[in-house]
Amino acid sequence: MRLSAAVLGGPDPGALAAFYRALLGWEVLLEEPEWVMLRPPGGGTGLSFQLERDHVPPVWPQGPGDQQVQVHLDVAVEVRGGDPAASLAAAAERAVALGGRLPEHQPQEDVRVVLDPAGHPFCLFLPEG
Question: Which helix (H) or strand (E) holds 36?
């Protein structure tokens, strides 16, 4: 067995897929009104998006009784120009320009939590080494 994809739900799977396609530079493998599949250009584990008409975005950061984050994605940021902090800031700015949102709470200096257009949090991080 192998993991084929992680699936995120939301009220507009096409828009959510378009956000991640632009963010990651991935290709559309299948696109239907209620289901979209993306894969990296070289193949491998992808992301899929399904329609959830009653989608309730998770709360970040979560408090007692809040809608919980069930899973989040970690996205490694490529360091460009030898400046890790500037690379992370540029990646966060790009995610926001594509339709994401930066929440006020940021737990670490070398990580930026971003909320995608459907409210799912994901982390932009600087890989070690």
Answer: strand 35-39
